[in-house]
């Protein structure tokens, strides 16, 4: 390896082996904007590049045994077909196994999770290991992994569980949105590795239910995203609860200056590992990218036709808002496509259920907001659609990173509305994509069919599909304000009751009245009290006076009677 020492910094940068291979491919020009030309792979071992294409693959000449991985973990990985490491794994594992602090940087979808997961599982002590008897508190967490989102935490836990099927390391996930009871019971039974989001981890630590004083390894996965989401104070508080002599590993696709500052504060002489050169593109070269300028009203039709193109397996569609995600998911269901959604308005159980159905192939389309842009590693995602333009270049990179993962090929389609052209230009400039103009595209544009391999004559609706009838949704808060509270009763009434309601509106509710004079019931008022018929006019007065002369009114000023009257209190 090539080591570059820094005299003014504790960082040591390590790149891949000196044997490199540059691969350039040129595809036929299409009218749609395509970003897969002149792809260059840098600082990747020569054996890690397939001779057929430009995608980086695991080095067939290198095994996990060469990296010092114990046989139990090798056996577990071999059961799922993982026998050769990827470049980031071949660089990070030998360094992390010996306990050195490290910063790992590689593009999304290149195997960062196992890069720290394998070394983490190997450093954890379990019953039967040589130094297990030296542990003062067996059952307390020995490793802590912090993730920015719940979905990423679940994904990391799943990968660690696969790699520890033979070694039997106890791994648990901690995140908000669910109850405490199950998590507290698992902690009481004893665990070896805890994976979670900073908020719930800090909550359990402050309650003294989670003891971090025996942690040997701390991992910050997608560290830049945790900084963007404002988790830095919580992360620092959690790190402060761990021993000083711990090992700290930082992994992320991007490394801004704030991450370097964090590393200098909490890491001891860390080694910076990069699986590609400094001038390598942030996007994975295995992903063919198309960018179209499309009208918002025509986007559902474009997506419907794309879902019927050749080679489509699983599709992830990203929107900017949760309402747009749910609206698009309902629209696709009406068009005959089995789809699900993940956004902030759904409970954690509903989100996990939709993601599970998507993984199992029960639904082919998953519509999500950026909450799912990081951490979702689903096998077989062939297409990613940016239904709305991302906010910045980092969001764009992590969105399209859901496809083209671990050596597989993928297609990313971005639909840019006229109002988002300026935002896209900033993304184009930041990633140096070289797009000067966007192609104005509609659902019947010929190049759309050619670029995305859509069969001729395809429409944006499955033949024979009919819109589904949906029950009115209940308001989120029954005691809320405004329209949700007024309409809650209407949502519970049936159609027949709602139709009969206008007929009853003109009827007056019968009321019983008593007419009094000087404290005594007037004659005939008793009949009015027992009458159930609606009162349409007042009953005639029962009085000894039969004249039609108007009644005299007593006038008073300041409680004194006028010249012609008496006091009103008389």
Protein architecture, described:
- The chain is an alpha/beta fold.
- Helices cover 31% and strands 14% of the residues.
- The protein has helices at 71-79, 87-97, 112-123, 150-163, 181-189, 198-206, 223-228, 232-240, 257-266, 299-306, 322-334, 348-360, 393-400, 421-431, 446-452, 483-486, 488-492, 495-505, 525-530, and strands spanning 3-4, 12-14, 33-34, 102-105, 143-146, 171-174, 193-196, 217-221, 247-252, 271-274, 287-293, 314-318, 339-342, 365-368, 381-386, 410-416, 439-440, 516-517, 520-521, 556-557, 560-561.
- The strands form four sheets. A nine-stranded mixed β-sheet has the order 1-2-10-4-9-8-5-7-6, sandwiched between helices. Strands 3, 11, 12, 13, 14, 15, 16 and 17 form an eight-stranded mixed β-sheet that branches.
- α13 links the parallel β15 (381-386) and β16.
- The longest helix is centred in the N-terminal third of the chain and has 14 residues, at 150-163.
- The protein is globular.
- Residues 1-56, 474-503 and 528-533 have low confidence and may be disordered.
How much strand content do the residues show? Answer: 5-15%
Which sheet architecture does the biggest sheet show? Answer: 9 strands, mixed
CATH architecture tag of the largest domain = 3-Layer(aba) Sandwich
Alpha-beta content class: alpha/beta
CATH class of the largest domain: Alpha Beta
Regions with little confidence, pLDDT below 50 for 5+ residues: 1-56, 474-503, 528-533
Termini separation comes to 112 Å
From the alpha-carbon coordinates, what is the Rg to the nearest angstrom?
35 Å
Shape: globular
Named CATH topology of the largest domain? Rossmann fold
Helix content: 25-40%
Give the tally of structural domains: 2
User: What is the CATH superfamily of the largest domain?
Assistant: P-loop containing nucleotide triphosphate hydrolases
């Amino acid at each position: 390896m090539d080591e570059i020492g820094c005299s003014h910094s504790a960082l040591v940068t390590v790149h891949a082996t000196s044997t490199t291979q540059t691969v350039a491919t040129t595809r036929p020009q299409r009218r749609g904007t395509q970003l897969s030309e002149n792809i260059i792979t840098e600082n990747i071992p020569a054996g890690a590049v397939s001779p057929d294409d430009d995608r980086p693959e695991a080095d067939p000449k290198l095994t996990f045994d060469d990296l010092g991985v114990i046989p139990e973990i090798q056996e577990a990985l071999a059961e799922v077909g993982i026998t050769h490491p990827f470049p980031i794994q071949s660089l990070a594992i030998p360094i992390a196994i010996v306990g050195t602090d490290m910063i790992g940087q590689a593009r999304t979808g290149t195997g960062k999770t196992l890069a720290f997961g394998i070394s983490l599982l190997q450093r954890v002590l379990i019953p039967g290991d040589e130094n297990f008897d030296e542990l003062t508190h067996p059952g307390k967490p020995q490793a802590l992994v912090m993730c920015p989102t719940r979905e990423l935490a679940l994904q990391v836990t799943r990968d660690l569980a696969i790699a520890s099927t033979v070694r039997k390391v106890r791994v648990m996930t901690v995140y908000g949105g669910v109850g405490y009871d199950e998590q507290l019971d698992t902690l009481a039974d004893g665990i070896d590795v805890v994976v979670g989001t900073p908020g719930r981890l800090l909550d359990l630590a402050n309650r003294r239910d989670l003891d971090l004083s025996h942690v040997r390894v701390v991992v910050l996965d997608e560290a830049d995203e945790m900084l963007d989401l404002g988790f830095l104070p919580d992360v620092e508080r959690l790190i402060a609860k761990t021993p000083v002599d711990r090992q700290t590993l930082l992994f992320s696709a991007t490394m801004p200056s704030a991450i370097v500052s964090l590393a200098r504060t909490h890491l001891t002489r860390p080694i910076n590992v990069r699986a590609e050169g400094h001038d390598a593109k942030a996007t994975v070269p295995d992903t063919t990218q198309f960018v179209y300028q499309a009208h918002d009203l025509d986007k559902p039709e474009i997506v419907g036709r794309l879902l019927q193109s050749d080679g489509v397996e699983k599709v992830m569609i990203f929107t900017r808002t949760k309402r747009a995600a749910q609206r698009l998911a309902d629209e696709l269901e009406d068009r005959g496509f089995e789809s699900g959604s993940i956004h902030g308005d759904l409970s954690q159980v509903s989100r996990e259920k939709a993601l599970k159905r998507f993984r199992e192939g029960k639904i082919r389309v998953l519509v999500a907001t950026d909450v799912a842009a990081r951490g979702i590693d689903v096998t077989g995602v062939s297409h990613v659609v940016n239904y709305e333009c991302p906010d910045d270049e980092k969001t764009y990179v992590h969105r399209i990173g859901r496809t083209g993962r671990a050596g597989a090929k993928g297609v990313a389609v971005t639909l840019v509305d006229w109002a988002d052209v300026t935002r896209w230009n900033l993304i184009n400039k930041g990633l140096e994509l070289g797009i000067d103009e966007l192609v104005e595209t509609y659902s019947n544009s010929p190049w759309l069919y050619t670029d995305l391999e859509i069969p001729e004559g395809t429409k944006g609706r499955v033949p024979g599909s009919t819109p589904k009838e949906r029950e009115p949704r209940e308001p989120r808060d029954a005691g809320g304000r405004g329209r949700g509270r007024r309409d809650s009763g209407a949502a519970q009434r049936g159609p027949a009751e709602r139709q009969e309601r206008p007929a009853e509106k003109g009827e007056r509710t019968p009321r019983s009245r008593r007419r009094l004079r000087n404290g005594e019931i007037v004659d005939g008022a008793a009949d009015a009290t027992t009458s159930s018929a609606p009162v349409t006019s007042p009953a005639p007065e029962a009085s000894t006076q039969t004249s039609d002369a108007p009644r005299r009114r007593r006038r008073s000023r300041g409680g004194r009677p006028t010249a012609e009257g008496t006091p009103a209190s008389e």
